[in-house]
Amino acid sequence: MSVAPEKTARPVRPVRVRLTDLADALGLTKGTVSRALNGYPDIAEATQLRVRRKAEAMGYRPLAQAQAIRTGRTCTLGLVLQTDTDGSQRPFLSDFLEGVTRAASAENWTTTVATAEPGEEMEMVLGRLVEERKADGFILPRTHTVDRRAILLRDLGVPFVLFGRVADAAGCAWFDILGEAAMRDAAMRLATQGHRRIGFVNGAFTYSFAGLRDQGFRDGMARAGLTLDESLIRSGAMSREAGAEAAAALLHRPEPPTAIIFAVDRAALGGYDAAEAAGLRVGQDLSIIGYDGIPEGRWMRPTLTTFSVDSRGAGARLATLLIRRIRGEAAETLRETAEARLQTGGSDGPPQRTSADIAAHIAAQTEHEEC
Amino acid sequence: MSVAPEKTARPVRPVRVRLTDLADALGLTKGTVSRALNGYPDIAEATQLRVRRKAEAMGYRPLAQAQAIRTGRTCTLGLVLQTDTDGSQRPFLSDFLEGVTRAASAENWTTTVATAEPGEEMEMVLGRLVEERKADGFILPRTHTVDRRAILLRDLGVPFVLFGRVADAAGCAWFDILGEAAMRDAAMRLATQGHRRIGFVNGAFTYSFAGLRDQGFRDGMARAGLTLDESLIRSGAMSREAGAEAAAALLHRPEPPTAIIFAVDRAALGGYDAAEAAGLRVGQDLSIIGYDGIPEGRWMRPTLTTFSVDSRGAGARLATLLIRRIRGEAAETLRETAEARLQTGGSDGPPQRTSADIAAHIAAQTEHEEC
DNA sequence: AGCGTTGCCGAAACCGGTTTCGGAGCCAAT
DNA sequence: ATTGGCTCCGAAACCGGTTTCGGCAACGCT
């Protein structure tokens, strides 16, 4: 009916519905409405319902910052990424972030990320974020054997969730993938294929997963009834180069392995390099099994047999656990694990050469190179 | 009824220095102190100095959320990642994020990230973040030729910065890498090496970079004095598989190229696959030049010649540009570009076979396969 | 001396919520 | 009829800042 062109003068930003607006529309005071929405017991059941319905209808969304100034809660998850020198988190980060942010926003929480190198700076950044109330709690990826972040936050009384388990478990909530189970299964799988000398290239023991995977490997060997040769175990390989080096070292032993398990896919890729350098065919002369499920594995020839972890799922679980932690649940009740999924490729199989064969081959090759 | 538990949780958090504390210590009112810190002209120079010094000494840090409720500014950058089906942003994300967050926190800003798939959901997420004032502005990675995010935010009057240029430039600030310059240089480089038939496998035209790189390639061909064969141009290759397919199509032409430029490294990796399938040696029979600088390129044999972009730097520039935009600078004055850096590998070089040679080789091979 | 400026700061309102306190109304028990 | 307890909600303080307004003193000017 109206010829109202003044609509054009409407401010660009749509008017937000404030608590007061809601209260006015309901004929209540904002205090009452606030308590109704937050489920205080001194508000009549019927009123609570009425308020909730109206809030929904009017599209009311509380301003987290405004709530925060009184409650101290921002509804924000903190995620401080480590600038990892070995780039080990690269391929997963995208999926992981998606898991975290999606789970967070499902609860109407947000995620703030920061970056710091492990050590001093990391603690500074965490401290700053806490002091300025930029995050209500933290997700700590890449758990260290002795994790200074966890200790710091625990002392500060700030909620956090580890991606990875830790020995000093008091006050720690976590989510983790059972890497030890994967290492165990890998050893047993190789044993079933007929391998008797199996090497193990672990990651760095500064990370908490290394100890677990070491145990898992030993467990698998024991279950398979194979004797463990300590000289076939290496650790500290977090990169392709390091993996290649470790694998080469194993292959040059007097009794080399016919198969090598890598605790980290990146290192497993190095295993291919070492095999190539030694003139061995991966999957035939040398079996390789990795862990992580990085995409590069599928592009290798033969494709890498590995245990893939669901990074997106992990991120999602961590986010929901952290939210529950912040809401007050005890850390001890917030511990979850999941299993990695075996993703078979062509990099493992029955040994086509014996250990002695390989040793002879490599000896011949080395001699040849020296000419 | 249980005893109120909140008293026990009390003492852990260290006491923050509030504005009032500062004011008390200075013998001023909090209003005055606030204005002093924010550089209002009605506060004496001397007083401002005194206040600033004291604030520093007492370690005062304003609570961003508290400021926000009055000013509407959270000092927060928004970054909504697209769940890209082609995984194209994967390898860069880590560096990119580091650049953004580091630059942001240098100004004492924080970064909140969210995830959404392009389209409807993306706009929902942006809208929600804006309405709930979770971010003061946005960094928009992966600019589309027609970018709905930019249009939405522009209409809403919300500051944003594009990673990539866009034709509909009004109100758009951006940072971009000059992909067209790289494509041009690639063409000229190959021409100098002696190539005369050069193929070009572009990315998807839904992204704004594709048009630019197309121009760059044509420009390079013209400058090199080579005639352009439209049949040697393909587009839409964002993945390794798609790159392989496009490259294979080019190689099966009557007069195949002796070199192919890829607008995207992932596609370039597919070029290796196509070459291998065709029995051609990369770098000798077929030259390949990529763009992006993904780490996998360095692991290919021969290593990929490509133009590497500094993702960390890009993130950092985008963050600072966005902050300036939020602070009021005009979008038109906030446009920056940088160049990609040529990273020579072994995948290009003087052609060791002519186009006719290759055609014959492939014909023979195809015939052979048909037997 | 009178008067208008100007510089500088205090007082208080304000932002959008949360939380404490107290009181009105109702009912049952004294 | 008074008292006491309960339920339910209004009023107002509060959180930690920002911003408006007004007033006091010192200054310059006629």
Map the helices and strands:
The structure is a homodimer of 371-residue chains.
Chain A lengths: L18 H8 L3 H8 L7 H14 L5 H8 L4 E7 L7 H17 L3 E7 L3 H12 L5 E4 L7 H9 L3 E4 L9 E5 L1 H15 L4 E4 L6 H16 L9 E2 L5 H12 L7 E4 L2 H13 L9 E6 L3 H4 L5 E4 L2 H16 L8 E4 L2 E3 L11 H16 L1
Parallel strand pairs in A: 1-2, 1-3, 3-4, 4-5, 5-11, 6-7, 6-8, 8-9, 9-10
Antiparallel strand pairs in A: 10-12
Helix pairs in contact in A: 1-2, 5-13, 8-9, 10-11
Chain A binds a DNA duplex (30 and 30 nucleotides) through helix 2 and helix 4.
H-E order of chain A:
HHHHEHEHEHEEHEHEHEHEHEHEEH
**Which two chains share the most extensive interface?**
A-B, 46 and 48 residues
Shape summary of chain A: elongated
Structural class given helices, strands, pairing of chain A? alpha/beta
Oligomer: homodimer
Radius of gyration of chain A: 27 Å
Helix content of chain A: 40-55%
- Poorly predicted regions of chain A: 1-13
The DSSP helix count of chain A reads 14
Biggest β-sheet strands, sense, barrel of chain A? 6 strands, parallel
Mean pLDDT of chain A: 93
Topology, number of strands of chain A:
12
Strand content of chain A: 5-15%
Distance between the termini of chain A: 99 Å
User: Biggest sheet of chain A, strands in spatial order?
Assistant: 2-1-3-4-5-11
